[in-house]
Design goal:
7-stranded antiparallel beta sheet; alpha+beta; 2 domains; Jelly Rolls; 10 helices; Rossmann fold; 31% strand
């Protein structure tokens, strides 16, 4: 089909919800195939140059190294436990002729081995995102890994020692790979399918391919596995969403390009990059574009080891939903109590994951199938967390869903007050929120999904954007920090005009919105809304309090995202690894997280629709309540 390219100038388009685009814009609109059939128009723009400091890229150069046992990638990293063959920039041809490049780490022998693919556009060596950019490396010591791993991916030094091949592709459009860089969806899934089938046919492959990694590398697993590549034998999604619109970009119907824009600015390509931040603020309903960003979970039937947490602001809901909806007969869930990066590189968890892959990629009879189907953590700030409690399912079958009703004096009660009441706040006040608390009269565990049912009214606006949070407080009403010093909250969001619930997708405890139309508010209109609050596992002791806060949504700050690209990392100029004390030429890359390809094209958070006053109605005719999952 004839390809058409349309350059978008500021004079030709008005982005009512995003920053103004100057006449020197790099933004373009391109035809984009969804599900390998229909074409839709999608925005693209220029990202970092592959040679930019912040990109921390590598020269395209096809060569093979023998990385010797005991050598190191960088000072302080773990020495290699075995000899490793590294084939750099191996070309992989996709079905449409596009060439992508992969680095392949494999054992130094002529045997056939299983492979693990780490699928992301972050850079197959160091790249624009790295643990060194994250405060305190998220708790992962420098010597916990060899430094051969791509960001959020499996460490080749660990896996090659046990007879695995690690494949680190630069995906379509990333760095020196051909094409335009894209975000998940069907095209990415086809690319992953093709790469898996390519890998299975190589002389070093036993025909069994797995996938592993955090975040983007997990989201990719959901999408690629949904296309059912014949040689994909097992996956290990370690925290990642499954529905991009509902769970990150436009959660609750509120467009939030802040996180997508921050991630976009770390990408490097010789070509263009899908301008998803701009899609977030211009495609604010569930249209064909966003439908293509929902993983086909119903198609996943292969073994899966799923890892989740309650505290990831991007991935929590999707990870639990992915575990629930995949059709695998052999699937396991482990819920940890730390963070995704720290948990992934813990030695005991790497060994646990190895047992899983040994079972399904090597065919070893190692007892993995007797592993408990669910291992759960329950958080207990101020006390001691429960970790790896054995369960049979999630949500737990013994859950009792109880209602806590909003009442006067900012309390939550176990029965609905008889009289109609209301509270309000002005959205531009110093405290645009209302808080309600419940005091437990006995030790209580709340594990699972929460839902807030409200009756709301707006004065001075035809819409409302709400942020709700549930938090544990001490007996004297103070937040209880976790071991990192931060209070733990479980959150929900809603643009009230998009309140319509999808009855087919929802459960009583987890309302999922349709997002296919808007119903603006009329003056004086009071409407019921259901707000999903993401899963939590929390222990409350007698006398401790549950706090429910309802507030006017305020766009997040970009400062909340790690300064990716800032860390300066020193590695060998040639040869890839070296022996400690050896005199070798070194190079230092990185150190500039302010570098942006086209600052004038950056997408800013749209102005909130909140104006005037929010009123919450409860009691009597207006039954407003928080549903909590009490575990008996």
């Amino acid at each position: 089909m004839k390809t058409m390219l349309k350059t978008v100038f500021a004079s030709a388009i008005s982005f009512a919800l995003c920053s103004e685009v100057s006449a020197s814009t790099t933004v373009t609109e391109l035809p984009y195939k969804i599900d390998n059939q229909k074409e839709i128009n999608v925005y693209f723009r220029k990202g970092l140059d592959v040679n930019a400091d912040r990109a921390r890229g590598a020269e395209l150069k096809q060569e093979t190294f023998l990385l010797k046992k005991g050598s190191i990638r960088r000072d302080g990293a773990k020495p290699l436990p075995c000899d490793i063959v590294l084939e750099k920039d191996v070309p992989v041809k996709l079905r449409d002729g596009t060439i992508i490049y992969a680095d392949i780490f494999r054992p130094d022998d002529n045997n056939r081995h299983p492979s693990l693919i780490a699928w992301s556009p972050y850079g197959k060596e160091i790249g624009g995102q790295h643990l060194d950019d994250v405060p305190f490396r998220a708790g992962v010591p420098l010597d916990a890994t060899s430094g051969l791993e791509k960001f959020e991916g499996p460490d080749p030094a660990f896996w090659v020692k046990y007879g695995y091949v690690i494949i680190n592709p630069d995906t379509r459009g990333a760095y020196n790979s051909d094409g335009n860089l894209i975000y998940w969806g069907s095209q990415m899934a086809y690319d992953g399918y093709d790469t898996i089938e390519w890998a299975a046919a190589q002389k070093w492959s036993n025909g069994k391919i797995g996938m592993s990694g955090n975040s983007w590398l997990t989201v990719s697993q959901w999408f690629i596995a949904g296309e059912e590549p014949p040689h994909l034998a097992a996956i290990a999604p370690w925290e990642g969403f499954v529905d991009h619109f509902r769970e990150t970009a436009n959660r609750g119907g509120i467009p939030n390009p802040v996180f997508p824009e921050a991630i976009f600015e770390t990408f490097a390509s010789r070509n263009l990059i899908e301008d998803q931040p701009r899609m977030v603020v211009t495609h604010t309903l569930m249209d064909e574009y966003w439908q293509d960003k929902i993983a086909k979970l119903e198609n996943i039937k292969i073994p899966a080891y799923v890892v989740a947490s309650y505290t990831n602001p991007v991935h929590t809901h999707g990870t639990f939903r992915g575990f629930s909806l995949i059709q695998s007969k052999n699937k396991w869930l482990r819920v940890h109590n730390t963070n995704e990066w720290f948990d992934y590189y813990q030695p005991q968890n790497m060994e646990d994951l190895k047992r899983f892959f040994d079972c399904y990629l090597k065919g070893e009879h190692n007892g993995w199938e007797n592993t408990p189907k669910v291992r759960l953590s329950v958080l207990d700030p101020g006390h001691e967390d429960i970790v790896n409690r054995v369960e049979n399912e999630f949500p737990l079958a013994r859950t009792s869903y109880q209602r806590l009703y909003l009442s006067s004096d900012n309390k939550l009660e176990t029965s609905n007050p008889k009289d109609n009441s209301k509270v309000s706040y002005y959205v531009n006040s110093d405290q645009p929120s209302s808080e309600f608390t419940y005091t437990f009269d006995r030790d209580t565990e709340i594990t699972g999904y929460m839902k807030l049912h409200l009756n709301v009214e707006a004065i001075g606006s035809d819409d409302m954007e709400l942020h709700v949070s549930v938090q544990k407080l001490s007996s004297d009403g103070k937040p209880i920090p976790d071991m990192t010093g931060h209070a733990i909250t479980s959150e929900g969001y809603l643009r009230v005009s998009q309140r319509a619930v999808d009855e087919k997708l929802s459960t009583d405890y987890d309302p999922i919105l349709r997002h296919d139309h808007e119903e603006l508010l009329k003056p004086g209109e009071i409407v019921p809304v259901d707000i999903a609050i993401w899963p939590m596992g929390m222990k409350y002791h007698k006398g401790e309090q549950l706090s429910l806060k309802v507030e006017a949504y305020n766009p997040p700050s970009k400062n909340e995202i790690p300064p990716f690209g800032r860390a300066r990392i020193t590695v060998p100029q040639d040869g890839y690894t070296f022996f400690k004390g050896e005199s070798v030429r070194m190079k230092t890359i990185g150190g500039n997280n302010d570098e942006v390809a086209s600052p004038e094209d950056a997408v800013l958070a749209p102005a909130t629709r909140n104006k005037g006053k929010h009123i919450l109605h409860f009691g009597g005719d207006y039954v407003s309540y928080l549903t909590i999952p009490v575990v008996n």
